Amino acid sequence: MSFSTLLFPFVFLPIAIILYYISPKKIRSVTLLVLSLLFFAWGNPAYLLLMLCSIAMNYFAGLELGHHLQAENHRRAKTVLTVSVIANLLLLGFFKYYGFLLDNINALLHLKLPVRTYLAPIGLSFYTFSLLSYLFDVYRGKAEMQRNLLSFSLYVTFFPKLISGPIMQYHDFEAQLISPRVNLTKLGDGVRLFLIGLAKKLLLADVIGTSFYAMQAQGVQSTFGAWVEAISYTLMLYFDFGGYSDMAIGLGKMLGFELPKNFEYPYLCSSITDFWRRWHISLGSWFRDYVYIPLGGSREGQAKTIRNLMIVWLLTGLWHGASWTFIIWGLYYGILLILEKFVLKKVVDVLPSFLRHLLTVLLVVVGWVFFFSGSISEAFGTISRMFGKGAFLDSTAKYYFSGCWKILLVGIFACFPIGARIGMQVYRRSERAVVLLSVLYFGLLLLLCIAAMVGGTYSSFLYFQF
Amino acid sequence: MNKTTFFAVGRWVAILAAVIFLICTFSSGKISKTPLEAVEKAVLGKVDTTHLEGSDAQILHRDYGLSANDYDGFVLYSPKDFMDPEEILIVKLADTNQAEQVASAMQKRLDERTAVFDNGYGPAQYDLLTKHSVIRTEGNYVLLLVSENAESALKAFLKAL
Asked: With an 8 Å Cβ cutoff, is A237 touching chain B?
């Protein structure tokens, strides 16, 4: 089930909120778990069984880990952790990387092994990372083993974050599992955030996406066209995933939970390091806490820091998908970060901030070309066109740009916090006229979103594929 | 049995259950390995394509709002003339979770086309759209057919999978 179809905001969500609020406090978790499982099973109930197996396996693994650690049997605890992590990764690998691996073995060894790809359960990459976070937290003593199966299941399946995050680390979610706080202010805040996210998705991402996909289908052949295509994708991806994250955080608030921020105006970044502090924050934090730091981080000299950075970025690329374009995209960021930290640091530091910002955004836009291209050659074709190969302007680019420049401008404006800051100032005031204005504004936003949902056609969230 | 042994047994039972689930699900043949081209050939073999022409990703997005990039593949045959009701769309899903969305998009398209010919504006076309149309989801394939031979084409589709 997707947040941006009519079924979710007009059927599932109201029913979920009503059931949750009218449930006695003692059984609220049960209500939420049932709703979350229903949400997960919608459209493909078969994978529910697999999800339940996953939950059971990690629940028992957590208990086993906890008991071995209490008995100070660290060797056994390490074995349990290793086996459980491998089991989780095998499941993820089976669905995500099996086909890719066989394709590459066939290509390398000139074999013809039959390749069969399997359709992955929705949100697999996200909930697998949640499960791994739990195991690592228990093993490292950052959290207690969870004895309550209901609470543990809820941590894994909590529907606002289930499909596309934000990826919650277990120690952050644990405290909230005991008694989520619901009140009218939080509910209102949640509805406001949900609406903002819905508007980002339907009124910006999907509208920009229309021209982007049309340009992709036509194939732009000029420098200008390649830039319009890349910038369109840059904006579409941000409003699509950022919108989803806003909706998830808003839903969490409605149910009394605080989910972590996933985006902080990423295109205002002044360096690549800064970009990754602002983009998909929860994934970056996960890799930092569970891969980069355990590998030694930046504490063991330059050579090991470089190695650790490349490992983390290779894995980040792979996490996004089983394709060479994602791997190259990940390594591209690894190399950029290494250059920024060790080679060009002095140059970067003296650059005027405007220039630094511009260069960073330029590198990010180029990076997204690998993300949206079907193959490496296609990606390099687009990049070479962006940097001057072929004509400067072609009729296709001209045609699509004349249709989309206004929405691109709106998108660029929405990348800045000005609108949100004004909105928050207004939202926090309690004068009657201001409150009325605020209600009218959000009412209008809702109407526009409904119109987009009714009149438009379905477009899934881009990050669902990961 | 002490606690840790109990937990270990629980963990291994869950792993075993997951493995059994995967074996059962993927050996049942629900997910078809048949290439899209073969499915297309089977369906087209049963349908009169005089009024149809092959369409691209742009038409798919315009008529159905589906982005070709989201799927493993698609085959779309649109009517040559606006007044022709015949249409074929086969979508090979990248994820079975997409089935509901694709089928809804197909249903919406079918409803829109039916509305065009409603109220006596095109009784023959209306008849074809309401009585000889099929939307069918089979594992990782979703099919829309509007054709006089929809039934036999559907059989060919199922057989091809």
From this structure: no
Cα dihedral across residues B42, B43, B48, B54: positive or negative:
negative
Tell me what ipTM this predicted complex has. 0.76
Chain B interface includes A67 (CB < 8 A): yes
What span, in angstroms and rounded, lies between the C-alpha atoms of A51 and A35? 14
Among A44, A59, A87, select the one facing B97 at the smallest CB separation.
Answer: A44
* Percent helix / strand / coil, chain A, rounded to 5: 75, 0, 25
Q: Closest by alpha carbon to B106, among B119, B122, B93, B124?
A: B93
User: Is B4 in Cβ contact with A64 (below 8 Å)?
Assistant: yes
Considering the candidates A68, A171, A280, A320, report the single residue annotated as catalytic.
A320
- Please judge whether A61 and B7 are an interchain contact, meaning their C-beta atoms are less than 8 angstroms apart: yes
Q: What is the pLDDT of residues A133-147, one digit of tens each?
A: 999 999 999 999 999
CA distances from A208 to A108, A280, A410, B101 (A): 39, 21, 10, 20
A320 labelled catalytic: yes
Contact B65, B37 (CB under 8 A): no
What is the nearest CA distance from B160 to chain A, expressed in angstroms?
17
Which residues, 6 or more positions from A62, have their beta carbon under 8 angstroms from its beta carbon?
A: A134, A135, A138, A145, A146, A152
CB of A63 within 8 Å of a chain B CB? The answer is yes
Strand partners, B91: B74, B142
Count other Cβ atoms within 10 Å, centred on residue A418: 10
Which stretch of DSSP H or E encloses residue B142? strand B141-146
Cα separation, A437 vs A431, whole angstroms: 10
User: What pTM value is reported for the model?
Assistant: 0.77
pLDDT score at A243: 94
d(CA A433, CA B9): 64
CB contact under 8 A, B95 and A119: yes
